[in-house]
Amino acid sequence: MVVGLFVLGVAPVAANAAGRTDGYVIDHVATKEPVVFLTVDDGSHLSRETNQYIRNLRIPITTFALPEQINRHRRRFVNLLRQTGMTFENHSQTHRIVSAMNYKDQRAEICAGNREVERVIRRRPAFFRPPGGGWNSDTVRAAKSCGLSRIVLWNVMADGGRIIRADGGTGLRRGDIVLLHYLDSLPASLEVVMREASRARLRFALLRDHLPLPAKTP
Description:
The chain is an alpha/beta fold. The chain has helices spanning 15-20, 48-57, 67-72, 74-84, 103-121, 137-145, 186-199; strands spanning 25-26, 35-41, 62-64, 87-88, 127-128, 150-152, 156-159, 162-165, 177-181, 203-205. The chain has one domain: Glycoside hydrolase/deacetylase (TIM Barrel). The strands form 2 sheets. Strands 2, 3, 4, 7, 8, 9 and 10 form a 7-stranded mixed sheet that branches. Strands 1-6-5 form a 3-stranded parallel sheet. Helix 2 (48-57) runs parallel beside helix 4.
């Protein structure tokens, strides 16, 4: 059974299931600090212009790009890591919907994502974001067995010049996890998010600075 799933531009809801997983599956961060978290998923490519835009901004971004994409744009991503502190997490190996797989196949897909990201970036991922936001109890078991400390969903999307909240509200609030994608429209989407964050007097932070990391990884 699929517990969470991204459908028609609405963020997957982790709140109900989070209690059953001791907070292992999250879509926001409970924090008293005035921070929000920018997460950028796969998309189509990291263009030269978008790369330069992110470098100039020097804002913290948590990347959930696919291993193939990271490898294809290895030099640009490694430079962003060095120049902005960007972190690289696990978004699976092939972008298959893991909740449609059995436990064994989910574990193989997630652990392979770890190995591939680490091979290019030289750092092991700490978090897992299931493609499409689809997950179930086997996903939780598999991600834990691969040494990942959280399944990270999102409660806000930035797309087409709009902020879309899962709760139907407007603007940004502290602890929000914002979803964007590596598309040519990313700079415009970031502009919208930065404007809303400034309006709400929020700053950007890395998930790794606000969530416990795994003590060890297999």
